[in-house]
């Protein structure tokens, strides 16, 4: 673990223990074993540190979920079971993250933290909803928001038992148990029942789930435009830059294999802005 990650882990524990407003940068520095002045080389403020904690851990989580999703050998049900297991394991290993979200931090630190946590919730709901539709088919779509919300609610309560009350719950067993309960929920709602949530009511969550992803796409397109402007000669490099831009502009229908092939081709030329372009594309497809 690097120094920056060590500071975040220390701060997370201190925030969970004392509360965000009661914890000071001086205490965080002392527990991290660094001078107070040095901590500002990594984080400009306590607020930025809190934002970084949430962003770092959820980026790790969603990256692991994406790896499981990419496994073609898994059925939709097995994929969600493994993803839930990974999610539970992460919160079990970082119990303070659950405590931070339950306490004052998420709601009262700042607008930036509040908006970030909302985007995380929206992203999580979108992931559950998509997984539920993959398992149970198109017939569940009218009630998929309700199913995803109930799955999220059940998991949240069990995470409190695990992280706050220290109940000895096994991640694999809990994930399988939640999926069995989800079966019953879906069966009930498909048996002539009507859900409460629809796309109109949940439009803000749907928009938030795609907002950050679209920002990474726009950043990648901006890199491509600047790279093309620095390379005015009509050749294979310029044509590849244009093809890559055209593919990304397709949005949801962009062919990932084509994007990755073009990116791999451009890697041979050590082009300016290539690393920034590569990061933006990887984050877009995360």
From TrEMBL:
The keyword Transmembrane helix does not apply. Pfam families: TetR_N. It comes from Geobacillus thermocatenulatus. This is TetR family transcriptional regulator. Keywords: DNA-binding, Transcription, Transcription regulation. One of its GO terms (molecular function) is DNA binding. It comes from the Bacteria. One of its GO terms (biological process) is negative regulation of DNA-templated transcription.
């Amino acid at each position: 673990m690097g120094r920056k990650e060590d500071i975040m882990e220390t701060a997370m524990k201190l925030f969970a223990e004392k509360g965000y407003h009661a914890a000071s940068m001086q205490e965080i520095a002392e527990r991290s074993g660094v001078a107070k002045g040095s901590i500002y080389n990594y984080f400009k403020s306590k607020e930025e540190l809190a934002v970084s904690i949430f962003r770092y851990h959820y980026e790790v989580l969603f990256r692991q979920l994406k790896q499981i999703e990419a496994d073609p050998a898994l059925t939709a049900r097995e994929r969600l079971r493994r993803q839930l297991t990974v999610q539970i394991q992460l919160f079990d290993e970082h119990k303070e993250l659950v405590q931070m979200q339950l306490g004052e931090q998420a709601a009262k630190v700042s607008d930036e933290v509040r908006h970030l946590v909302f985007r995380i919730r929206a992203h999580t709901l979108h992931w559950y909803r998509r997984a539920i539709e993959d398992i149970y088919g198109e017939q569940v779509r009218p009630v998929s928001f309700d199913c995803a919300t109930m799955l999220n609610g059940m998991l949240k309560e069990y995470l409190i038992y695990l992280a706050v009350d220290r109940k000895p719950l096994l991640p694999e067993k809990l994930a399988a148990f939640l999926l069995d309960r989800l079966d019953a929920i879906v069966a009930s709602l498909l048996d002539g029942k009507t859900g409460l949530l629809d796309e109109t009511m949940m439009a803000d969550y749907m928009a938030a789930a795609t907002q950050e992803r679209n920002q990474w796409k726009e950043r990648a397109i901006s890199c491509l435009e600047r790279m093309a402007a620095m390379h005015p000669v009509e050749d294979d490099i310029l044509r590849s830059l244009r093809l890559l831009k055209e593919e990304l502009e397709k949005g949801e229908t962009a062919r990932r294999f084509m994007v990755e092939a073009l990116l791999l081709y451009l890697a041979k030329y050590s082009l300016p802005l290539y690393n920034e372009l590569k990061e933006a594309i990887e984050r877009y497809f995360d």
